[in-house]
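Hi support team,

I've been running sequence recovery on a batch of backbones for a student project. Most finish fine, but this one hangs at about 90% for roughly twenty minutes before it completes. I'm not sure whether the input is malformed or the queue is just slow. I've pasted the structure tokens below so you can try to reproduce it. Let me know if you need the job ID as well.

Thanks,
M.K.
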């Protein structure tokens, strides 16, 4: 089978599509014929060598944190999934993978899969896996948004940010989206009540907010200071400097900056699918690339300036 792999740490040019052995599911595992996989920050950081403690230094390394496709085979003891089921899921973000989601087939434990939302293509489903899961953990489980609260989503045009705008709106929040002004119409269509241009809206001049969801990962303290008393802030993307800010913020008690590592299971994927089924959450796709265009997909992700996800279509 074909699989996109990292052949050395560096720019997107280190990505290659190689012929590798098709995996076989062991007990408790599922083999998925992949329809599509999206590009996430985790993928580009691993490729650049920023997570060597996880990925190791032995090449090739698989790429593609998420995927959507069809069950091709199940290992012994698997319940709840059968050949032909449409599914979505992730590989484990803290383990080394010679094959990731950007491949014709991937094997994962059954508890890392969920039933893909009905009505979505594999490309559309792949665009929602990581963004939907991460936004839901941030809003529901970490800062616990309540109806009527003022919510700022920073980096609102990205995969996580666009999902966070939709979910915060569905939870009854008054949503302010911070993004490029040219994305204002799209973000209002996703549920933003206010859209501010991050190039002209100084942090010190906006707010206060009950909740800040940060999908940028840097310059965090400027936005933490925009929290109202009792406000909460969570960041879902961290730079090295952002890690320092998160650690130092513990002195601020309830207004500290929270962070987490999303590691979804079947129940969480099913919760996201429920929001899709209700109409509260929909995919936002910027670009679709073939598997052998994986390097171009990474380049598009790193250029930024778009709304939604870059998706790699494998057999969709």
């Amino acid at each position: 089978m074909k699989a996109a792999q990292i052949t050395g740490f560096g720019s997107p040019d280190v990505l290659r599509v190689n012929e590798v052995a098709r995996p076989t599911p062991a007990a408790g595992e599922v083999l998925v014929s992949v329809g599509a996989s999206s590009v996430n920050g985790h993928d580009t950081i691993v490729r650049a060598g920023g997570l060597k403690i996880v990925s190791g230094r032995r090449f090739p390394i698989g790429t593609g944190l998420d995927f959507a496709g069809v069950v091709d085979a199940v290992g012994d003891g698997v319940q709840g999934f059968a050949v032909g089921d449409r599914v979505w899921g992730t590989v484990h973000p803290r383990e080394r993978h010679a094959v990731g989601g950007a491949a014709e087939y991937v094997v994962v434990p059954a508890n890392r899969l969920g039933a893909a939302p009905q009505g979505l293509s594999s490309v559309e489903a792949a665009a929602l896996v990581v963004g939907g899961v991460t936004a839901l953990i941030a809003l529901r489980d970490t800062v616990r948004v309540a109806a009527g609260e003022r919510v700022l989503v920073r980096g609102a045009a990205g995969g996580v940010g666009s999902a966070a705008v939709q979910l915060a709106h569905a939870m009854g929040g008054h949503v302010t989206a911070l993004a490029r002004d040219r994305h204002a119409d799209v973000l209002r269509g996703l549920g933003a009540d206010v859209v501010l241009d991050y190039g002209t809206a100084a942090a010190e001049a906006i707010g206060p907010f009950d909740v800040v969801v940060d999908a940028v990962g840097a310059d965090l303290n400027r936005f933490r200071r925009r929290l109202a008393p009792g406000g909460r802030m969570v960041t879902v993307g961290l730079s090295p400097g952002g890690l320092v800010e998160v650690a130092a913020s513990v002195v601020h008690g309830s207004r500290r900056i929270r962070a987490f590592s999303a590691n979804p299971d079947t129940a969480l994927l099913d919760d996201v699918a429920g929001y899709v089924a209700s109409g509260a959450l929909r995919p936002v796709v910027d670009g679709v690339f073939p598997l052998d265009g994986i390097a171009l997909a990474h380049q598009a992700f790193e250029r930024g300036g778009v709304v939604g996800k870059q998706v790699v279509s494998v057999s969709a």
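--
Follow-up from support: It reproduced on our side and the slowdown came from queue contention, not your input. The chain has ten helices and 16 strands. No action needed from you.
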